Amino acid sequence: MTALFALATGLLWGLADFGGGLLTRRTPALTVVVVSQSIAVVVLGVVVMATGGWSEAGPQLWFAVAAGLVGPVAMLAFYKALALGPMGVVSPLGSVGVAVPVGVGLVLGERPGVLQFVGILVAVAGVCLAGGPQFRGAPVQRQAIALTLLAAFGFGAVMALIAEASTTLTGLFLALFVQRVTNVAAGGLALYVSVRRGAPALPADGFPWRSLPALAFVGLADVAANGTYSIAAQHGPVTVAAVLASLYPVVTAVAARGVLRERLRAVQAAGAGLALVGTVLLASG
């Protein structure tokens, strides 16, 4: 079950990152974050009321609040990085945040077996190679790398926090709702400050109504990914769940290849293959 839900997390995060990266090429990143997360808040609010999730309220929700504060910073940095650099380069670098939940798992006493340890090394190496990193170039590329590393730490922290925010399915719905409300509050405040400083909140042609379905998909896919990751982490080793979930850059790279016609270099294809080998080792271990 851990492998299944963790792989679903990777798929959902990969597609959400691809969609978010495309949207920020025309719409300010903060607006993408706030609008997509607002849609998620509405949907999650309905789900919480329908499932009676309010009864699961407790001190553990502070983990969700913390995840909600860290999340917008990470998403904003990541979307800006995606807008600056090729998705196939930025996305794999973002996966280094897996070190945070893996480190938490090791501190809590988890010890993966030999086969799983090899799988972790192979999968992480494959994810890094899947982007065919290109560190040479202009200062814009260095800025994209710096933003990506900031986002990576934030994503890793969110993974660790959300895994501690609930112990039941209805509690998970409430935790995700609280996280998203905090996301919108923090992102909305940042957007307000940005606008006061003269930055545009919308594209030149106004609110992107035609992009509303894509914004909804990005927000809901990100929520679903957090949910499936939490389930994966609760039913198996966090070290395994985190590494499998971090395969999302492979999904982003493949989506970029299929939709944007970004050509995969030999090193990227080799990295994708290694990531799949690592996945098999982790799942079989």
Automatic annotation (TrEMBL):
Q: Tell me the domain of life.
A: Bacteria
Task: Spell out the Pfam families in the cross-references.
Answer: EamA
Write the lineage as a comma-separated list.
Answer: Bacteria, Bacillati, Actinomycetota, Actinomycetes, Kitasatosporales
Write down what this protein is called. EamA domain-containing protein
Question: What PANTHER family does its record include?
Answer: ACYL-MALONYL CONDENSING ENZYME-RELATED (PTHR22911)
Q: Which InterPro entries match?
A: EamA_dom, EmrE-like
Query: Which residues span the membrane?
Result: 28-49, 61-82, 114-132, 144-163, 169-193, 214-232, 238-259
* Keyword field contains Transmembrane: yes
Which organism encodes this protein?
Streptomyces afghaniensis 772
